[in-house]
Amino acid sequence: xxxxxxxxxxxxxxxxxxxxxxxxxxxxxxxxxxxxxxxxxxxxxxxxxxxxxxxxxxxxxxxxxxxxxxxxxxxxxxxxxxxxxxxxxxxxxxxxxxxxxxxxxxxxxxxxxxxxxxxxxxxxxxxxxxxxxxxxxxxx
Length: 140
Known about the structure:
- By secondary structure, the chain is an alpha+beta fold.
- It has helices spanning 2-26, 32-38, 104-114; strands spanning 45-46, 56-58, 77-86, 92-99, 117-119, 121-123, 126-139.
- It contains three helices and seven strands; from the N terminus they run H-H-E-E-E-E-H-E-E-E.
- The strands form two sheets. Strands 1, 3, 4, 6 and 7 form a five-stranded mixed sheet that branches. A two-stranded antiparallel sheet has the order 2-5.
């Protein structure tokens, strides 16, 4: 009887734990503008209009996304639009697909964007993080 009570207790705890974790997953995450309001100024990500000196992209001529075979059925032109964060440390810290082609070209474009080399933007003489919209296009 005691074992049965312990098993029921454990199952109850598991069910409560699952319910709690699901409730936490359903909470909407704050939008970037809300989270930026609470961030210290030194960690903020700026738009290109807000910085004194925009980030300088170093060209990488051989780093071009290529479509895979799954892209053959798609239109004449493949296009991926990405929003990236050029972090003040000199690395790409975030890549978000804004508009994609619907095939492996999108994954390739994200990979290429993660390898962007750049000098960070500057504001008030200090390096800062900056948003940048990047577009890759492939014409068949």
